[in-house]
């Protein structure tokens, strides 16, 4: 049985790999239980990323940008209200069935 932790861990590792391929230094914030799952930076800016993973079979059939926006609306709103330096980007990534959905404020 796959746990929420292992699904999140897998999604976070895939995202870190993507960011590294885009020339970012990226690191998971393992076990932090904070709203920031991944820290990444390059010579221009920092990224603070929140990651969600959808695995429920019934939910996977509904997945779209609109569905995710509605499902995580409050969490995204709270995350995007974080006060960060001007060179910092906030991103909310959702992983489902091998596809990534990226939301920005």
How would you describe what is shown here?
A hairpin with a 4-residue loop joins strand 2 and strand 3. Helices cover 35% and strands 30% of the residues. The chain has helices at 4-21, 57-60, 65-71, 73-80; strands spanning 25-28, 38-41, 46-54, 88-96, 99-103. The chain has 105 residues and is an alpha+beta fold. The chain has a single domain (4-103), classed as Trna Endonuclease, Chain: A, domain 1 (3-Layer(aba) Sandwich), CATH 3.40.1350. The longest helix is centred in the N-terminal third of the chain and has 18 residues, at 4-21. A 5-stranded mixed beta sheet has the order 1-2-3-4-5, with helices on both faces. It contains 4 helices and 5 strands, in the order H-E-E-E-H-H-H-E-E. The model has no long low-confidence stretch (mean pLDDT 87).
SSE inventory with pairings:
Blueprint: H1 4-21, E1 25-28, E2 38-41, E3 46-54, H2 57-60, H3 65-71, H4 73-80, E4 88-96, E5 99-103
Parallel strand pairs: 3-4
Antiparallel strand pairs: 1-2, 2-3, 4-5
Task: Summarize it.
By secondary structure, the chain is α+β, with helices and mostly antiparallel strands. It is 35% helix and 30% strand. A five-stranded mixed beta sheet has the order 1-2-3-4-5, with helices on both faces.
